[in-house]
């Protein structure tokens, strides 16, 4: 988790983005835990489910 935050901070700094608005520390939530959803226009998208 800490290494990921360091990597994100390095990328943010390198790309001259502003500061992060909020950092969520979710050690037990995988970024790969996605669910397929159908949008009203009929297209399909994948979203990450977070509590």
Terminus-to-terminus distance: 18 Å
Q: What amount of the residues lies in strands?
A: 15-25%
Could you say which overall geometry the principal axes of the C-alpha atoms support?
extended
Order of helices and strands: HEE
Q: Are there runs of 5+ residues with pLDDT below 50, and where?
A: none
Total count of strands: 2
Radius of gyration (CA) equals 15 Å
How many helices does DSSP assign? Answer: 1
What is the makeup of the main sheet? 2 strands, antiparallel
Query: Numbering strands along the chain, what is their spatial order in the largest sheet?
Result: 1-2
Summarize the amount of helix as a percent range: 25-40%
Helical/strand content category: alpha+beta
What does this structure look like?
The chain has one helix and two strands; from the N terminus they run H-E-E. The chain has 51 residues and is an alpha+beta fold. Strands 1-2 form a two-stranded antiparallel sheet. Strand 1 and strand 2 form a beta hairpin. The longest helix has 13 residues, at 2-14. It is extended and about 40 Å long.
Which secondary structure elements does this structure contain, and how are they paired or packed?
Blueprint: H1 2-14, E1 34-38, E2 44-48
Antiparallel strand pairs: 1-2
List keywords for this structure.
2 strands; two-stranded antiparallel sheet; about 50 residues; alpha+beta
